[in-house]
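During the first year of the project, the team set up a workflow for recording each protein of interest as an amino acid sequence followed immediately by a discrete structure-token representation. This format lets reviewers and collaborators read both layers of information side by side without switching files. As required by the reporting guidelines, we include two representative entries from the current panel. The first entry is reproduced here exactly as it appears in our internal archive.
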Amino acid sequence: MSDATFASRRLSPRTRLALGVFARYATIIGLIGMIAAFSALSPRAFPTLINFTNVLNQASLAVIISGGLTLAVIVGELDLSVGFAASLHGVLVMGLIVSNQLPVPVAILIVLLLGALIGYVNGLIVTRLKVNSVIATLGVGTILTGLAFAYASGVPIVAGVPEAFLQISLGRWFFGIPNNILIMAVVLGALWVLVERTSIGQEIQAVGGNPAAARLAGIDVARIKTLGFVISGVCAALTGVLLSSRLGSGTTNAADSYLMTAFAAVFLGSATLRDGEFHIVGTLIGALIIAFGFNGLNIFGAPTFSQYIFQGAILIVAVGLSSLGRIIAES
């Protein structure tokens, strides 16, 4: 028994109940409180439909990459390659369209398949070679960064981008809603159904909860862990494609910062509604907290460095709340 668990058992039942409620709902309360505070401080700029739509649009890519990362984390692993992979995929899709003159759908399909392949390689390194996932995915991510620079020679690909590709992110094809929001909703919905409503999802959760017990139950743990990495890789690839479409260029390090955002969202999500468990709905709420926080800081003219401070603080708080929820659940 850990010291933290032992200490929690010394608390009164009422105190444990209060801490449990706080651990489960603190992030939601924080999100609502932050929106209310920003709305009160800037009633003309912040609480508007245009601004909220803009926040969701800006958050959409972070939600997609975070959703994929959630699957890797649920199976008990960490994928530190997602940001670097998204940057490579953004450069590659631009190169295939502009330099190789491939049709947009074909280029996107190739990049998504490559994302799956990279995830598969991550899974093989972790499950077959028994390399720690932090080391394995960080090494793979570094290799991907080198490949991105080699492919683009360190120069952004900007000339000759077809309008059809730009409209994937910038267009509003249905009901005036930005396409990225719709894509985000479809991806997140699919991931939620996979994890919460399918037999494979039950296996994913079983492997993350107790790999030894899952193996005794006949589950192919290596296959499930690899699947988690593959889904993470595909979502990273899709994020890279959408980011290049939004920016109108393929830049070698454009998506690197999504790594920290994704981890902050995933760990915030684990402190939401469940006792330290990673899940898709929680990741969405975590990503929205970060997005609305950034939006509020921008509206009030906060300097750029404040965003990094905010994101780092959010990550620390998220891990703390997740640990608190897990300790209480075990007590």
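The second entry, processed by the same pipeline in the following quarter, appears below.
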Amino acid sequence: MDIRQVDLNLLKVFDALLKKRHVTQAGISIGLSQPAMSYALAKLRELFEDPLFVRTGRGMEPTPRAQALSEPVARMLELVQNEILPMPEFRPGESTRTFVLCMSDIGEMVFLPRLLKHLDAHAPNVKIKTVALSTPELEEALTSGDVDVAVGYFPGLEGAALRRKALYQHSFVCIVREDHPTIHDTLSLDQYLEAPHAMVHPEGRAQDILERAHERLGIRVNVRFNLPRFMGIPFIVAGSDTIATVPLAVGRRFAEFVNIKLLPLPFPGPRYDLHLHWHSRFHHEPANRWMRGTMSELINGPQQHEPLRNTKRAGRTAREA
């Protein structure tokens, strides 16, 4: 017998006939008409080269061959029904899984605390590992499953098998120390141009958008400090007359632990989209779906990325410069 000839539906017919010993009643139990059952029985007899069921006064009685097949067929159908067909359920409250997330230091500052608070309440044994990868490395890691989800701004991550979901559109804000001697409640373009700046230059990240906006508007800032990461920025700004332009959510996070204030930019600030990224291989995987849904809900809920409402500006604007 060639296994390619075996149709799982035929085995369901066989099992129903064993239980009911009547063609019509067996068909009703599995949703098949009497003609369809007769056709399936004929295929079974051909497949096993045996009558399998013989009509008697007590109904369709199984042959010795059918009796020998009854237990293994029932076991196979149970295996398919209970272990192959069901999608495995992910129970976050019971899971000890480690999720690997790719995010920048911005993501670690802004998103990770919200996620960890949620995990403490709903998935106390789930663990998180974060990594920072280049775009080619990230695409490979998402494909292999070494990274479950990436969150943030990844403009070059465009593989055909990758999926993404837009989270929200982000903007920039200027941060200065609370007691800055010359910058008070508003920020003019003159002040922005004259002040020493601290800037971050992570490759392919949001700061590239800011630099392109500067170039487009003809703005040349006085860069005093050039850093590869954001973590040093709030302490430099809080302890000097230096200012910095950072993503809005980052500025608000900084303001929670250092003495700084947030001011709108004195020119039309650029905006950019943040996304969740994952690979199509894991689109239906329950744990991956749970993590994506959790992060999307936490990041897209009432958040710190609402626009800065202070629109008063002093001095000339970039369009006037």
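For the second entry, the following points were noted during internal review. The chain has a mean pLDDT of 86. The chain has three domains: 3-84, 98-168+275-300, 170-263. Both points are flagged for discussion at the upcoming steering committee meeting.
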